[in-house]
Design a protein that fits this description.
By secondary structure, the protein is mostly helical. The chain starts with a helix and ends in a 16-residue tail after the last helix.
């Protein structure tokens, strides 16, 4: 009984696979005429919508993740003697404008305090 059942099951599975493949090919030939343009613009629209949503909801965390990734890549790719000592952190307005850390301030005691 098993000698007849296995070939029948295999042939039935192959026929079902052939039939479903033929049906899918028929469906995809109808989509080919409008596919390239609609897929491109729908991808652009979905990308813009998801980008705006992620920027509004997760903007600060995405910015911090980008700064961390940028710092790690600069650290890994820079020569060892020029590696930045500190990780990403809040930048002052001077550092944001010039790209350099603010100058250090030195306070000298006045003549009255000595």
């Amino acid at each position: 009984m098993a000698g007849i059942l296995y070939p029948v099951l295999v042939l039935g599975g192959l026929y079902a696979n052939y039939f479903s493949t033929k049906e899918l090919d028929d469906i995809s030939t109808l989509e080919k005429t409008r596919r390239p343009l609609s897929d491109f613009w729908s991808g652009i629209c979905v990308g813009v919508i998801i980008g705006v949503w992620a920027g509004i909801n997760y903007g600060p965390s995405l910015k911090y993740a980008w700064e961390t990734l940028d710092w790690m890549s600069r650290w890994a790719l820079s020569p060892s003697e020029k590696r930045p000592p500190n990780g990403p952190g809040p930048q002052s307005s001077h550092q944001a404008q010039t790209g350099r850390p603010p100058p250090t301030q030195v306070y000298y005691p006045s003549a009255h305090q000595q």
